[in-house]
Design a protein that fits this description.
By secondary structure, the chain is α+β, with helices and mostly antiparallel strands. The chain has helices spanning 5-13, 36-45, 94-104; strands at 73-77, 108-109, 114-119, 125-131, 136-143, 147-155, 161-165, 169-170, 174-178, 182-203. The protein is 15% helix and 35% strand. The longest helix is centred in the middle third of the chain and has 11 residues, at 94-104. Strands 1, 2, 3, 4, 5, 6, 7, 8, 9 and 10 form a 10-stranded antiparallel sheet that branches. The chain is globular.
């Protein structure tokens, strides 16, 4: 009779009544998607997002990572440069103001005067210039009082930036130098206002 007891235990564990006594109860497994109805209901009750203001200006293009300046021209600082770098509207014609700036900066004209009229809704104007190897330049610019923001960019033959700035003399504290002859492009654009401008390349 005692030998039959060990056999009764496994039989009892397999029975329906031993399901509560022969091991821990297993927690129910949640079914995926069961709460989707409540989630969609709560999302539908949320207020719509506030629209962005319509008067925002368009986003400016962001340059790609790793983009550098010109490999064909180098900017060199020059402590002897005695020229104001501030942007002051020309009281007279912009062409006449360029002559005054050239005298103040102690420079000699190396290009013709590039002049015109631009507004903040216009595209940039391009002016070609042939830089000489072994020479260094500064871009002088002047504008009338109707133009509030004027930017000049000097690009090398592949389009990379050699010098740029809103100052009346670019580079502001130096000069851009070329090791070899280079076909460059001088770009002029207006950020605010509309009026006359004049730009010219000079060298020491």
């Amino acid at each position: 009779m005692n030998r039959a007891l060990p056999l009764l235990v496994p039989l009892a564990c397999g029975s329906l009544f031993a399901a509560f006594a022969c091991g821990p109860a297993q927690a129910p497994v949640p079914v995926l998607g069961a709460g989707s109805a409540s989630a969609s209901t709560s999302a539908a009750s949320l207020p719509p997002p506030t629209p962005l203001p319509s008067g925002l200006p368009p986003a400016l293009p962001v340059p790609a990572m790793g983009v550098r300046g010109s490999a064909h021209a180098k900017v060199r600082e020059d402590a002897s440069v005695s020229c104001t770098a501030s942007r002051v509207p020309a009281p007279g014609k912009p062409e006449d103001e360029l002559k005054k700036l050239g005298s103040t900066c102690k420079l000699q004209a190396s290009s013709a005067v590039f002049a015109g009229t631009l507004g903040d809704g216009d595209g940039a104007k391009d002016f070609p210039f042939r830089a000489k190897g072994g020479h260094c330049y500064r871009v002088l610019s002047a504008k009338d009082g109707a133009v509030q923001d004027l930017v000049v960019v000097l690009r090398d033959r592949v389009g990379d930036v050699a010098a740029t700035g809103p100052e009346s003399a670019v580079p502001a504290n130096g000069k851009v130098c070329f090791d070899a002859d280079e076909d460059t492009t001088l770009q002029v654009s207006v950020g605010t206002g509309r009026g006359a401008f004049a730009v010219q390349l000079w060298e020491p």
